[in-house]
Structure formats: structure tokens, C-alpha cells
Amino acid sequence: MKTIVTFGEVMGRLAPEGVLRFRQALPGPLNLTFGGAEANVAASLAQLGAAARFVTALPQNAISDACVGFLSGLGVDTTQILRTKQGRLGLYFFENGANQRPSNVIYDRSHSSVSLAKAADYDWDKAFADSA
Predict the structure, then answer these.
(1) pLDDT digits over 7-41, tens only?
(2) What are the backbone angles phi and psi of residue 12, rounded to the nearest 5°?
(3) What is the tally of helices (H) and strands (E) in the chain?
(4) How far apart (Å, rounded) are the C-alpha atoms in residues 117 and 113?
């Protein structure tokens, strides 16, 4: 089976419970999950039984370890995720919409590891090995 390769930024997703807005929920708890279009596609493909590999760059820290573990647990090949000493995990803050009120997203991606990585930092031959 050929492997489908996706490349992009996976970010930490911080959101209040339910349909609360940040001004209603803070100070207080926020849920941290992970998301990003290309990571979501790889996860969906893996859940449907396809071989999927996700390529990105993440900092060397425990939160990134959790992100890689989460994706790997969904069946995504994470072996080509570049772990860097520079940069950070990008974040986005999400308010769920309710009725006619739309959802709201605030991105905080400056200086993320993937934005600082150079194309030459990746082993593209390994990233696209057995790819479709």
C-alpha cells in the first residue's frame, strides 16, 4: 500500500468548555487539544485504513511529545516529524459558535518550529518513501 504524505503545521488548540467565550471562561480552565488541516487529513486517512504520514517540525518538549503520541495513536506515521531546538508549538484559541453566533479563531503562530525550519532540514527522500 502506498503512503499518503501530508505536510503542514500542527498546533495546540486552546478552547473553553462548550460555547463559552473567552471573556466568560477566563480566568479558568481551557482544554488543550491538537489540530491543523494537514494533520487532520492524515489522521482521517489513517482512521479510514490508509497509510498516512505527517511531516512537520515541532520543538523538543513534553507538549510536542504528547502531540506526536496523539497522532501516532491514531495510526499516523510520525517518524518524519522534525524535532527542533528552535521555535515553539504554534497555538490557536477557539471559541465554539452557538446559534447565529459564529465560531471565533485567534492564531498565534509566530516563531513556531515549522515556520523556522528550512527545506534542507527535512529528509525528503525518507518523507516521501513509498508515497502515493
Answers:
(1) 999 999 999 999 999 999 999 999 999 999 999 99
(2) -75, 135
(3) 5, 8
(4) 6
Tell me the DSSP string of 8-27: ---EEEEE-STT--HHHH-S
What one-character DSSP code corresponds to residue 119?
G
Helical packing angle, 37-47 and 62-73, nearest 10°: 40
DSSP string, 43-76: HHHHHTT-EEEEE-EEESSHHHHHHHHHHHHTT-
For 3-120, the fitting CATH number among 3.40.1190.20, 3.40.50.12160, 3.40.50.300, 3.30.930.10 is: 3.40.1190.20
Q: How far apart are CA 132 and CA 114, in angstroms?
A: 23
Q: Give the predicted TM-score (pTM) of the model.
A: 0.91
Residue 22 Cα distances to 33, 44, 52, 71, 100, angstroms: 16, 29, 35, 27, 18
Nearest to 33 by CA among 59, 20, 14: 14
